[in-house]
Design a protein that fits this description.
This protein folds into two domains: about 5-95 and about 185-200, ATPase, nucleotide binding domain (Nucleotidyltransferase, domain 5, 2-Layer Sandwich), CATH 3.30.420.40; about 95-180, Nucleotidyltransferase, domain 5, CATH 3.30.420.200. About 25% of the residues lie in helices and about 30% in strands. It has four helices and ten strands; from the N terminus they run E-E-E-H-E-H-E-H-E-E-E-E-E-H. It has helices spanning about 35-50, 70-85, 95-105, 190-200; strands spanning about 5-10, 15-20, 25-30, 60-65, 90-95, 115-120, 125-130, 135-145, 160-165, 180. The longest helix is centred in the middle third of the chain and has 18 residues, at about 70-85. The chain is globular.
């Protein structure tokens, strides 16, 4: 059996989950927001205790490596790397936009021509990614400005599935033609376990020493 530990610190709450051969066994979500550093190791310990396994029993570690909070992403990846280095386990990095798209394609197979994930980065800035109905990348995850949004789609008449809570028909009417809008932008842990297990079986692991979060944009500093 392959046990994969999943870590997501890209949003306000720390989420950890354990999958076995692509099936979700247990998950833990912290009650506190933006307190990943103090919560993550406790959550992992509780998760493994609930499953009745030890860290050494893990087959691999999977991290949602962004985009998201800079601090949260670094905490999640650091915890994962610590486990992988200590136990000589492989690491899988997933992009949140790609997870959202793949779980939607899996849930609505054959129903739409294009799938878009659009998350707000800063005011007037977005993280976006687009796939076709077969899961092929039409636009790989990237950071864009608001004025670039309406020019994203080559086929305005295509049937689109849009995942976003940050844009509306009022602000971008042209994009919403023939579209279904899903404002729920949370990762489906069950689907993620299935997706990540497939990646692991295809050896889509990363180099521990050089891997880093999917920031997708430069860090802003203030004097």
């Amino acid at each position: 059996m392959d046990y994969l530990l999943h870590i997501d610190t890209s949003a306000d709450k720390c989420v950890v989950a354990l999958g076995c051969d692509g099936i979700l066994l247990h998950s833990q979500t912290s009650n506190e927001t933006r307190n990943h550093a103090s919560e993550i190791n406790i959550s992992i310990q509780k998760l493994l205790a609930e499953a009745g396994i030890a860290l050494a029993d893990l087959t691999a570690v999977v991290v949602c490596a962004g985009p998201g909070s800079y601090t949260g992403l670094r905490i999640g990846l650091s915890a994962a790397k610590g486990i992988c280095y200590a136990l000589d386990k492989p690491l899988v990095l997933d992009n949140k936009l790609q997870i959202l798209l793949m779980q939607s394609i899996m849930a609505h197979e054959g129903s739409f021509d294009e799938y878009l994930a659009i998350l707000k980065a800063r005011e007037g800035e977005y993280f976006v990614a687009i796939k076709d109905g077969n899961g092929a990348d039409l636009l790989e995850p990237r950071h864009i400005l608001a004025e670039e949004l309406e020019g994203l789609l080559p086929n305005a008449d295509s049937k689109k599935f849009i995942i976003s809570r940050d844009i509306s028909v009022d602000t971008l009417p042209g994009m919403f033609k023939n579209s279904y809008i899903l404002s729920e932008v949370e990762i489906d842990i069950k689907r993620w376990c299935e997706i990540a297990y497939g990646e692991y079986k295809c050896n889509k692991t990363v180099n521990l020493s050089t891997s880093e979060p999917f920031y997708l944009k430069q860090v802003y500093t203030h004097k």
